[in-house]
Amino acid sequence: MAVKQKIAFVTLGCKLNFSETSTIARQFPEPDYERVPPTEQADVYVVNTCSVTSAAERKCRQAIRRAAKLNPDAAIVVTGCYAQLRPHEIAALHQDASKITVVADKNEIYAPHAPRTAAPSENFFAAYSSGDRTRSFLKVQDGCDYRCTYCTIPLARGKSRNIPIGKLVDTAEAIARKGVKEIVITGVNIGDFGKSTGDTFFDLLKALHGVEGIERYRISSIEPNLLTHDMIRWIADARKILPHFHIPLQSGSNKILAAMQRRYTRELFAQRVGEIRHAMPYAFIGADVITGFPDETAADFDDTFRFLRQLAPSFVHVFPYSPRPHTPAAAYGNQVAEQERMRRSEALTQLSHSLLHDFYKKNIGRDEYVLFEHTEKNGCMYGYTRNYIKVETSYDAALTGQIAAVRLSDMLRVKGDVLSVMCEELRVKSDV
Ligand code: SF4
């Protein structure tokens, strides 16, 4: 009997990379390969990299060096944004460069001798994650036509493109056949969906909503200028599209938004949040913010802080600005000192903790629907409400993978931060 090759996968970065690695892994099936953790010796390592910050790139390099150290003879296949942008840095990470193959087009991950290239692939690598029996990340779009001045993603992932809606519906049906009830709709700039096929993201939502077996869809992240008033109103009535919005704000200062070449003002962002709240008062609203962008003065930052405190989203994802090579912002004057970027991040992170606490508190006593996960930890099980509240209850095998109606009863805190919410089960409802 032939000896199985040991293969390990490393994923860095976003949900899109996560869904892509999962799809790549399905191409290396059990009969021929034994899957091992990336901390063990393997014959092949596949590293799906990220380039969003310098810290992310450092982690990629660490992962590649670790693989080379664990087994100097292993084949290391490196793909993803960092690989696309800086293939020559990657080749230099191994004393025998022939062991590393940089693959730009993930469709060619099978071709270990593909030429090293820095050109972004314009093919579409269709992907969805599997392995988690509760939810799957479905990639619907890739690339971006925007030119935000801090971002390397368009350089790494190329133009905005997608596959036809019909194919995505087929994939959602295949995911439903595996018993998965929730799909997270994922992409680089998903609101821009349809550019290459003459459709819109709204068309896609309507089509996916009709897939039998999938009970819940989360929209991973959508630009505020692409989240339309009509879409918000429709989502409020669409049973399966969850009241959970993740909207990049990046700055609450119009001066900084313009310098970033974002395509909206803070007023438009506030308007979208107002529309969501009006239609879905308990919707979860997360906002991304970058602190310390070049020329962000203390007054500009205060503007952002006050704007967020007043608007009170449920959560703020905070990222200190990280200058990326080959982006216009990296060459801007008035770069903010790293220490100050971190200080501003910390201030917004504290604000975010208190906003999340308020959001959870507002939900205590409400009835909600939770999709329970399969994992048991210390006799407890976990799941998320429609509006993205993590809940905890005593483990009950009958509830795993089920949607149950619950009453949110009490907040669980660790060192003052709310981690999850206790719930009392009301009844199991598998059709909601
Ligand atoms: S919208 Fe802007 S930040 Fe987002 S991927 Fe495109 S260029 Fe980057």
Structural class: alpha/beta
The first-level CATH class of the largest domain is given as: Alpha Beta
Strand order of the largest sheet: 2-1-3-4-5
- In CATH, the homologous superfamily of the largest domain goes by the name tm_1862 like domain
Number of extended strands: 18
In round numbers, the mean pLDDT is: 90
Explain what you see.
By secondary structure, the chain is of the alpha/beta class. The protein folds into 3 domains: 5-108, NAD(P)-binding Rossmann-like Domain (Rossmann fold); 135-362, tm_1862 like domain (pyruvate-formate lyase- activating enzyme); 367-428, OB fold (Dihydrolipoamide Acetyltransferase, E2P) (Beta Barrel). The chain contains 12 helices and 18 strands. The strands form 5 sheets. A 5-stranded parallel sheet has the order 2-1-3-4-5, sandwiched between helices. A 5-stranded mixed beta barrel has the order 14-15-16-18-17. A 3-stranded parallel sheet has the order 6-9-10. Strand 15 and strand 16 (390-394) form a beta hairpin. Helix 6 (165-177) packs parallel to helix 7 (201-209). The longest helix is centred in the C-terminal third of the chain and has 26 residues, at 338-363. The chain is globular. The termini are far apart. The model is unreliable at 111-118 (pLDDT under 50). Bound molecules: iron/sulfur cluster (SF4). The site of iron/sulfur cluster has 9 residues, from helix 5.
